[in-house]
Design the sequence.
């Protein structure tokens, strides 16, 4: 039991904010913000054709300071402030990728990407296919996704399901600093269009970084999930900030001798079905957790995948989804809190799955 | 409606070439090597001077333009017939009547320059170097098509040619992005981003003008104004139909799009402007399409047949060039007739191949989703069917 607990602790990177680990020698600690910054810096240093454009990315150091210092280091040519014209600058970014550059197109939040979504889908995602392999679009669209704090309905939507729907796009959703650095680096090096959905509330979260993660050649492969915590009773699968929620819930449930396996999807599209299915075959119970809306969401897709796979025969309960409430995000703090899933939602749902209480 | 059509025709007619002179005396054997013509006036916006109205063309170039325009005309006619016999499906937007725009512009560009246009793209695909047989085979959806039949009419790509774009106006920011890449790489080349009078009102076009001017992008924005956005005449869609001025702070000019030499001269002027680092320019070419917006539109419910016939009779770009060449002994009627026959034979042969070639095998539908990716499973139409994407 104790060994299992130590194993579980070693497997997870960091669970709570500002958590200083002393369990094993560790190379460094990094916030998610710095991890993203490092990723862009390293890739811009490595490849002349990589550049960053978006609102406030240059002289302001980034609306959320993710691009801090990059303009001072690389100058106007490589870090470009754009006017507030998403459709225009996203189209320009896509065009520059078609002509051989490697743009990182930042949306201040993915809510604003809706104004440019035609360029992301019709100009970027579909072009390699429509041209039968003649025209590549090596672009990264990145920015914060999902709910922040008190920003209300128009600024709180999660776009994982919308972008995850489309063939021709790769969609990643990092949780930890290691995820953020490795996935963004992979995304920048990937010659296909990649949507990298970050989370504003995670930018300041500190995570341990292994020696390997600190190296300039550290990449996290797109399309591979990570088992953050091994378990035997129930699988929790999630992406982005909700992974933290699952790890918290797993700790709570552990006190009641319920051991959850926590999977961090890392990539929404292509989703790592193999890891999911193997886990379900092991635990026989699955609960999906996300911040986005329930209908047609990431969880809904996971349920469908599991239903159609041979993991179905291993289920001892239906697959359940924990999601944001099916309403536009309210402003008032109590209402907002009630709109987003909390640990109690995950704990309750796991217990329902296990027919406990 | 009739009055605005008449105004359009009147405006076009005013730009018919007037003066020309010969280098040598006329005679059957006295073919000249080059000749000079006068184009109609260019309208200028925020420009102190514009392109020259005096244009010189060599015999070789003139015959090349003639052949190219005739090839586009024959190819588009063939496409129309293939559509009517249901061998081409979906969308098919014909370029007939607008040939002087693509041919004239190409004449002032090099293959190192870049071009992006909207969906009326077959003519441009050809001038950018794709053989007619591969264009027609793409239209008929065969694997010998330039996009293996996966793109269709609106999605044909070539060297430094980015299609073929189906969403009205979306190609304009893309074009400025290509120009950004050219400037970024320190290249001397330009990007030509074309759009129609309908697309000219799109918000993203103005967003693009703004960034292109702010960042001095080497982009020529070309408005192919054919008088109609689908079934809506320009007066009914645009508060201002002076499309060459719509860029406000972006200098612009308007040229006669039915005169291949005027188009060439205007493009040369615009390209020089962009190459010298002065930023973008707008070039409006006043042109006309004989067909409807697409093959599902007869093109006669919103404009009088007389207008179409009048344009064919008096303003046709191919006839216009032919008459010019003959009038100054740059070429004989016989050799141009021979070009007509050669082109017809080439297109006829291409049509036969476009009809006979096979489509891609169905398993290949899963390919070309990602580049540089190890083979991966792609779901088909039922849970038990998967393809491999290679």
Sequence:
């Amino acid at each position: 039991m104790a060994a299992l607990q130590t194993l579980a602790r070693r497997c997870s990177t960091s669970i709570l904010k500002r958590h200083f680990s002393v369990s094993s020698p560790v190379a460094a600690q990094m916030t998610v913000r710095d991890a993203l910054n490092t990723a862009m810096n390293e890739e811009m240093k490595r490849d002349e054709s990589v550049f960053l454009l978006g609102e406030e990315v240059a002289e302001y150091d980034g609306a959320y300071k993710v691009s801090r210092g990059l303009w001072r280091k690389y100058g106007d040519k490589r870090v470009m402030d754009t006017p507030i014209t998403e459709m225009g600058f996203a189209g320009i970014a896509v065009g520059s990728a078609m002509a051989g550059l490697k743009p990182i197109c930042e949306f201040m939040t993915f809510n604003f990407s809706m104004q440019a979504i035609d360029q992301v889908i019709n100009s970027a995602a579909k072009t390699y296919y429509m041209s039968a392999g003649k025209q590549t679009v090596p672009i990264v669209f990145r920015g914060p996704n999902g709910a922040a704090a008190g920003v209300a309905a128009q600024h709180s939507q999660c776009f994982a399901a919308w972008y995850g729907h489309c063939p021709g796009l790769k969609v990643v959703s990092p949780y930890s600093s290691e995820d953020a650095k490795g996935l963004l680096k992979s995304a920048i090096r990937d010659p296909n269009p990649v949507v990298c959905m970050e989370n504003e509330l995670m930018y300041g979260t500190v995570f341990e970084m292994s020696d390997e993660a600190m190296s300039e050649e550290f990449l996290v492969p797109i399309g591979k999930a990570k088992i953050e915590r091994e378990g035997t009773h129930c699988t929790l699968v999630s992406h982005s900030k909700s992974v933290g929620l699952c790890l918290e819930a797993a700790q709570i449930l552990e006190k009641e001798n319920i051991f959850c396996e926590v999977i961090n999807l890392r990539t929404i599209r292509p989703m790592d079905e193999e890891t999911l299915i193997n886990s379900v075959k092991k635990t026989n119970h699955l609960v999906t957790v996300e911040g986005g809306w329930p209908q047609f969401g990431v969880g809904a897709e996971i349920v469908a995948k599991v239903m159609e796979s041979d993991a179905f025969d291993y289920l001892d309960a239906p697959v359940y989804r924990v999601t944001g409430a099916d309403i536009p995000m309210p402003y008032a703090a109590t209402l907002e809190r009630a709109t987003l899933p909390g640990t109690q939602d995950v704990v309750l749902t796991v217990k329902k799955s296990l027919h406990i209480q | 409606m009739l009055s605005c059509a008449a105004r359009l025709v009147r405006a076009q007619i005013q730009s018919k070439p007037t003066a020309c002179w010969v280098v040598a005396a006329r005679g059957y054997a006295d073919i000249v090597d080059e000749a000079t013509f006068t184009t109609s006036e260019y309208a200028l916006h925020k420009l102190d001077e514009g392109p020259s109205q005096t244009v010189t063309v060599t015999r070789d170039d003139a015959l090349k333009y003639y052949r190219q325009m005739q090839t586009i005309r024959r190819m588009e006619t063939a496409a129309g017939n293939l559509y009517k016999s249901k061998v081409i499906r979906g969308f098919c937007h014909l370029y007939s009547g607008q040939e002087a725009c693509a041919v004239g512009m190409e004449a002032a560009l090099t293959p190192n320059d870049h071009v992006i246009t909207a969906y009326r793209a077959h003519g441009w695909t050809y001038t950018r170097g794709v053989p007619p047989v591969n264009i027609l085979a793409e239209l008929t959806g065969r694997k010998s098509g330039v996009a293996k039949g996966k793109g269709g009419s609106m999605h044909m790509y070539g060297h430094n040619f980015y299609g073929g774009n189906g969403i009205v106006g979306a190609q304009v920011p893309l074009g400025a992005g290509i120009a950004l890449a050219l400037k970024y790489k320190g290249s001397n080349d330009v990007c030509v981003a074309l759009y129609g009078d309908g697309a000219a009102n799109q918000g993203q076009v103005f967003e693009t003008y703004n960034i292109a001017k702010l960042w001095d992008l080497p982009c020529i924005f070309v408005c192919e104004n054919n008088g109609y956005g689908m079934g809506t005449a320009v007066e009914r869609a645009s508060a201002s139909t002076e499309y060459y001025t719509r860029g406000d702070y972006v200098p612009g000019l308007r040229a006669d799009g039915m005169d291949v030499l005027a188009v060439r001269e205007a493009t040369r002027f615009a390209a020089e402007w962009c190459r010298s680092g002065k930023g973008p320019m707008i070039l409006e070419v006043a042109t006309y399409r004989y067909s409807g917006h697409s093959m599902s539109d007869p093109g006669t419910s919103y404009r009088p047949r007389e207008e179409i016939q009048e344009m064919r009779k008096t303003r046709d770009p191919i006839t216009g060039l032919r008459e010019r060449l003959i009038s100054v002994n740059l070429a004989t009627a016989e050799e141009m007739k021979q070009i007509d026959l050669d082109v017809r034979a080439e297109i006829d042969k291409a049509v036969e191949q476009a009809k006979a070639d096979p489509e891609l095998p169905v398993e290949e539908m899963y390919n070309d989703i990602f580049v540089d990716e190890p083979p991966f499973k792609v779901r088909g139409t039922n849970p038990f069917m998967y393809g491999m994407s290679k």
Q: What stands out?
A: Confidence is low (pLDDT under 50) at residues 1-27 of chain B. Residues 103 and 127 of chain B are 7 Å apart (CA to CA). The radius of gyration of chain B is 21 Å.
